[in-house]
# Entry
Amino acid sequence: MEPDPKAFSPGSTRAGINRIRFLLESLVDLDLSLKSLARDPYYQALDIKVKDYASSAGIEVFSPVSHTLFNPEDIIQKNGGKPPLSYQSFVKVAGQPSWASSPISTTISSLPCVGEIGSCEISKVPTVEELGYEDVEQYEWTPFRGGESEALKRLRESINNKEWVANFEKPKGDPSAIVKPATTVLSPYLKFGCLSSRYFYQCLQDVYKNVRKHTSPPVSLVGQLLWRDFFYTVAFGTPNFDQMRGNRICKQIPWNDDNELLAAWREARTGYPWIDAIMVQLRKWGWMHHLARHCVACFLTRGDLFVHWEKGRDVFERLLIDSDWAINNGNWLWLSCSSFFYQYNRIYSPLSFGKKYDPNGNYIRHFLPVLKDMPKEYIYEPWTAPLSVQTKAKCIIGRDYPKPDGAVKKRIEDVMPIATGHEREELEAELQGKDVLEINHPVGPFGTKEAPAVVKSYYDKRIVGCPGGEGEDEHDVVWFWLEKGKPHECPVCSQYFVLEVVGPGGPPDGHGDDEDHH
Ligand SMILES: Cc1cc2nc3c(=O)[nH]c(=O)nc-3n(C[C@H](O)[C@H](O)[C@H](O)COP(=O)(O)OP(=O)(O)OC[C@H]3O[C@@H](n4cnc5c(N)ncnc54)[C@H](O)[C@@H]3O)c2cc1C
# Structure
């Protein structure tokens, strides 16, 4: 926890200063709670003593798993020795937690005597200043305070609003909401053990029992806790989960190694205000809404910069106050389309995604004050503002705030070097701002035999991925060749597809037989 002057942000070698402080606050709070029981804690010494005593008496020691809803080992065993690789299959295998019907005890009346602790010294929790961070004042601190008391207060605030809990639908939240975030902000408390995920789960079940109807996984709040357990289980059962090499569930992709692009992203100078504002929130708050995390992770990897997901993961790991090994790696694998999710052409636009929620750009103005006077017409694309407007807003693009072109490459090689054939042409068109074929959006919400989903194609056949429908019909993407005149029915969800050729036709590779022969 000692300061590392070589790190790119204030903090130790691995943890940013915000997470260090959050941990210290949590420890102080724990200390106070335990002191109120009139006993000094020394858990490690106590644990070892109990274990030693038990083993010498021939008693087996059982250390229960309680950080997660389920024991990852049990799930893997139930699934035939391998972790389930989709959320749906995880939920199916997991079922209900065995402890769910018995209420979790939340009060401790007394602690056993610690007894002799030998030469161990019990000292109070140090402050950040005592750890060597004297100049802490100059940094903006996260608004979230560490500790169990704060965790329980936040939890109560959320669950007291029964309607909000009952209607919670993750993808519908507003990622730009900062006065009152759209989700619980309990992740840092779960990470540090200030809040039990099992207690959280039971509180949610209590709310569900008392309302007429409520949302369900994957979008409900219980669904969010199941995502957490899903990633813990896969991480636990996958060797080299935190890297591309040697990770059997990770696609091997030739990411680029451009440290300049990485630095522009990390330091909030890509020139895209929506992306940069999120990166400032990461640095200052150590927490961002889930969809905001999606946007910047997609942008760094498959969306724009094509930088290795492991590099982005490292930045998150350092700066997030909720940084969690299994969840962070799992989500980076997901967002970079390296595992779990493979629709790399579903990209979060750095221009229009944020605008949907926050047309006035208040979120950007808050985290990037240099743009606070930019008229709303230009706030998401300030480089398009006429010079007179930039002058009036006291923000000249290229001088006071970067132009995107400097940091963000636009050639197809930089975006998706592995794309070939017609996929390459589609991507090229996309980079020029054209959605030539609308191929990514089959017509119709869910294809049936009577009203099939129409997929457009330049050529007589193309690869299509069926993601299933909403809710129960959702499934892992199933890839198949869709051919002209040959409708296809998805074997999993029975969605029906047909191909409409809107280009020159013929085979997709090589564009016609002539070119295939020399
Ligand atoms: C690239 C990327 C990296 C991420 N890194 C982390 C991380 O290091 N630590 C972390 O806790 N979350 C991480 N997440 C997941 C998610 O964004 C956060 O858990 C969530 O935003 C925390 O806010 P909340 O507590 O208000 O969530 P709520 O929506 O209120 O959800 C309640 C709890 O469910 C769990 N949860 C919610 N979403 C997810 C998810 N997608 N995966 C796993 N568990 C989830 C969290 O424990 C969360 O506290 C990451 C997401 C992305 C896209």
